[in-house]
Each structure stands twice: as C-alpha cells, then as structure tokens.
Amino acid sequence: MEAKAILRNARIAPRKVEIVLNLIRGKDLETALAIIKHTPKAACEYLVKLLNSAAANAENNFHMDKSNLYVSECFVCPGPTLKRGRARAKGSGARILKRTSHVTVVLAEKE
User: pLDDT tens-digit profile of 54-81?
Assistant: First the structure.
C-alpha cells in the first residue's frame, strides 16, 4: 500500500528541489524529516509540509502505521514557467524565466 502527496506549481526551480529529494529518497519517514529540517535549502520548507501531508494521508486514508513508513518514491517535474522581462543596456530587454515545480512524494510501509 502506498500513500501519495503532490505539490503543484511551487515557485521554486526543479533543479533546486531535486538536490534535496536525492538526500531523502529511500529513507524512513523520521530520518527524512530530520534530514530536511537540518538542511539549509529553500526547498526544505515545501518538502516538510509535503512529507507531513503524505504521512497524514497514509495514516488517515490507508490506516498505515506511521512508524513503519519510508520514502519509496520522490520526484520533481517542471511546471509552467512564468516569463518576465528586465531592462538591459542600450534600451534592450532580457527575458527572465521564473520556473515552477510539481513535486510528488510517495510513502510506503515496510514489510
């Protein structure tokens, strides 16, 4: 049995989220939360809420034991990109790409 939580349109670049997801992939829930809480990255704020949401889904919807959960799958996909402009030299302009992410965390129960 698996419990899933999805965060859509997070205003952070996918490459920044992937760095933190690589740290927690395959770890049990308590260890993953401890790693995220002590990692100084911007993506950690989003991932703490997402992990807690996935754990609550597992506990309330699927009646899983919270102490036996581990991160079986976690990945990030690029979301829609916001295009913005910025003034540059000689009256020209440059495009600024504000990237967004769709983050998915799947928790499973150890046998």
Answer: 999 999 999 999 999 999 999 999 999 9
